[in-house]
Specification:
Length: 267
């Protein structure tokens, strides 16, 4: 027994023992990370199957309108990021909202009328989706506003209101950037934005917000879009700052005007 204890103590002092322990730890953590990544990747919806003709048409459109910035194989350049793996949802969102092709560089791409028809947009999305697995364009069932609006409002206020305002009125960010208003945004683009995280927005994949969560948020925003404020004129739904400014300018201004008028009348 003393001999065995001596061997154990000697092996613990051996520098190779520390190296073996570190290597084993790296192997376990690396294997766990790989398994987790594979599970998340398998859970991520991939682009829906598209016909080869649609992909070919999308490739032609891409070469004519997008390759100058994103590269001929969508590998990215110094002027634009790679599109490999972003999925059809990201391409459909950017093209359908007119953000891409971009007109000029700046702090943020502007929403404008799309330069492509719906069929061309779908073809471009199909081509980008064919490059690598990525988030697919959501289905009609995923976009149906038949979720829980109350729960969706809670999720929106927790995850989105700090930028988009509690009712989606939008708001300013740093360095000339802004969170756009969602008062007229289509359900498909809200869903795609959550999947792809355009520009300054974080990605909300199914591990962050489940498809049910996303449906509830869309249900809430659809309700807000269709139902005006129950409390009267909402002052743009921009919150207490605008309401306070209204009080200072109009209410106090009215009181001051009345005071001046009464003083002048008494004289």
């Amino acid at each position: 027994m003393p001999f065995m204890k001596r061997n154990v103590k000697t092996s613990r002092r051996n520098p190779m023992a520390a190296i073996l322990v570190i290597a084993a730890g790296l192997a376990v953590s690396g294997g766990g990370y790989a398994a987790t990544t594979a599970a998340v990747a398998s859970a991520t919806p991939v682009s829906a199957a598209a016909s080869s003709a649609q992909v070919d048409e999308g490739h032609k459109l891409f070469l004519a309108n997008c390759a100058s910035c994103h590269g001929k194989n969508a590998e990215g350049t110094a002027n634009a990021p790679s599109l490999i793996g972003v999925g059809a949802a990201a391409a459909e969102f950017q093209v359908a909202t007119g953000r891409m092709p971009g007109q000029a560089s700046g702090p943020q791409l502007m929403v404008k009328p799309s330069q492509f028809t719906e069929e061309q947009t779908k073809a471009l999305a199909a081509y980008v989706g064919s490059l690598a697995p990525g988030p697919a364009i959501p289905t009609e069932a995923q976009l149906a506003p038949n979720g829980d609006a109350t729960r969706g409002g809670e999720l929106f206020r927790i995850n989105c209101a700090m930028c988009h305002n509690a009712v989606g009125a939008g708001g300013a960010l740093t360095e000339g950037k802004y969170a756009p208003a969602l008062t007229q945004t289509k359900a498909i683009h809200i869903y795609e934005a959550m999947l792809s995280g355009p520009q300054n927005m974080p990605v909300f994949n199914d591990a962050n917000l489940t498809p049910t969560d996303k449906k509830d948020i869309i249900t809430y925003l659809t309700y807000v879009q269709k139902n005006p404020s129950a409390g009267g004129y909402e002052l743009g739904n921009l919150g207490p700052v605008v309401e306070g400014l209204f009080i200072w300018i109009f209410a106090l201004g009215f009181i001051i005007a009345i005071t001046i008028w009464l003083g002048a009348k008494s004289n």
